[in-house]
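Internal tracking record. Fields below are filled automatically when a chain is submitted to the structure queue. Please do not edit lines marked as system-generated. If the sequence contains nonstandard residues, flag them in the REMARKS field before resubmitting.
Queue: standard
Priority: normal
Entity type: single polypeptide chain
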Amino acid sequence: MFQGFYTLTSGVLTQNRNLNVISNNMSNAITPGFKSDRFVISDFYNEMMIRTGNKNKSDTTRIGSMSLIAGGDETVTDYTQGVLSVSTSTLDFSITGNGFFSIQTDNGTVYTRNGNFSLDNDGYLCLPGVGRVLGTGGEIYLGTDRITADSQGRLYNEQTGAQLGQLMVVDFADYAQLNKENGNVFTTNANAVAADVDIRWKTLENSNADPIDQMTRMMASQRALQSSAQILTIYDELISQMRTMGPAS
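SYSTEM-GENERATED OUTPUT FOLLOWS
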């Protein structure tokens, strides 16, 4: 019975963490360029069960294995591209294929698939709340110019045709080295390489978090958590009764 406490308690803690991941996915279901996460649940290392000899305690034989508790193995990000949707803003961009926009922040460069850009107070292209968008020549100044763009991410003055900058899109050899941060961005110490991709102007990449799928996962996780919590209550009541009854005479 006492082993059950470990199993059930680990189930409650693990499902709580799973629900946190699912809730974050659901809250970002309409965030452009968002990449959903999945919490991978696995057993802790199986404990070997042995049969001990009656006299020679060093002579043991393995008779099986069991897992005492479950735990969270890791949180895995799904980098599958989301559906592209048409936008009316001339400052919206999306990437088809692999790659990330580069954003300069106070703490260094971060990377994102969110191309829902704007202009800051100084006229620089920026990702609101994060930082300035980097081009191949550094931060991109647009001022009050109206722009057009091509599939290479080159930005032009709509009236004069003068090039104002080019979006810098980079990629990485191993996405496992990316660390997901608040603000729908990624950080990494890995070397970024220029990515040859098609950039779509006046479109946005939708979140790849499917609300229906996430809702289904949430309901299953909640049921598992509630079941563990209910059985824990029963265990606690049984032990209380055992203590009240005391040892058999």
